[in-house]
Design goal:
The chain has helices at residues 14-25, 41-51, 59-63, 75-85, 104-111, 143-154, 168-176, 178-195, 200-221, 225-231, 238-248, 251-279, and strands spanning 7-10, 34-37, 54-56, 68-71, 94-97, 116-121, 131-137, 157-161. It has 280 residues and is an alpha/beta fold. The protein has an 8-stranded mixed sheet. Strand 4, helix 4 and strand 5 (94-97) form a beta-alpha-beta unit. The relative contact order is 0.10. NADP nicotinamide-adenine-dinucleotide phosphate binds at residues 10-11, 13-16, 37-40, 43, 59, 72-75, 77, 81, 98-100, 122-124, 176.
Amino acid sequence: MLKNKKISIIGTGNMGEALLSGLISSESSYPKNIICTDIRENRLTSIQEKYGVATTTDNIKAIEPSEIIIYAVKPQIIASVLKETASCLDMSKLVISIAAGVPLAAIESCLNKKLRLIRVMPNIAAFVKESASVVAAGGEATEEDIKLSLDIFNSMGKSIFLKENILMDAITGLSGSGPAYIFLIVEALADAGVKVGLSREDALFLSSQTVLGAAKLLLETKEHPGRLKDMVTSPGGTAIAGIHTLEKGGLRTTLINAVEVATKRSKELGEIMIKNFSNE
Ligand SMILES: NC(=O)c1ccc[n+]([C@@H]2O[C@H](COP(=O)([O-])OP(=O)(O)OC[C@H]3O[C@@H](n4cnc5c(N)ncnc54)[C@H](OP(=O)(O)O)[C@@H]3O)[C@@H](O)[C@H]2O)c1
């Protein structure tokens, strides 16, 4: 059970803190069971004061007594942090990486030993506990490891398990990068509101709340988006006139192309990383 497990978070920056906050506020874990690391002492002091967890700048000291290790450092440095801590990793520990674009194969080639490995692709909405996260497992991870990982990432949003490791690039292209597409859409809608006479503040609020409301409606009713679209397009009305323009502008094709190209880019970056990691 997650609540009784000793967890260490290696790198308590933005995502590490989002994870910590989710685990504690959802009561999925006790502060006494969590130890956080970072290279910045002042960062750790504020984390300790805010959440009541143990902290240290010594990654090995944090990992040794822990059963679950979550690597939340930047992809550029994860190889060196893994190498630094490799001596205290073994099959008794569940090792989770959230580093964007770093394939399990890269971690395996860097550590070169059997480990219960899990890779998770969360997104930036973790900060408001609304991340769409995907959990993928390495060959040695057990059903229990997958369940524990889902419990951890459900504390900062909603997550699903993906059997196919290989689809992680598609996840990166869709939900990992997705918030950026939506920010662009919201900003464009706000610009549109300003163009038709609204204040910037009102236009931005209305476009953001509209995206939130539409997403909530989809998730709560589980209706097909096409059916919900039909419900708001009355004959000869305003919404269908707007949709006609969006279709002429190729909105659907543009979004499909964006996800496809981001997926391809994620794959390319992953391949570069596998090469670099094995040379580290
Ligand atoms: N942010 C997102 O939206 C997002 C989404 C999906 C996945 N991710 C992944 O989540 C991971 C963390 O991202 P982030 O945005 O939270 O980055 P971040 O804010 O930079 O957090 C990483 C933390 O680790 C610290 N650190 C650096 N070297 C360390 C070491 N040797 N040992 C322990 N801690 C160390 C950093 O300190 P310094 O700042 O002083 O270097 C920083 O406080 C990344 O791999 C990223 O790809 C992030």
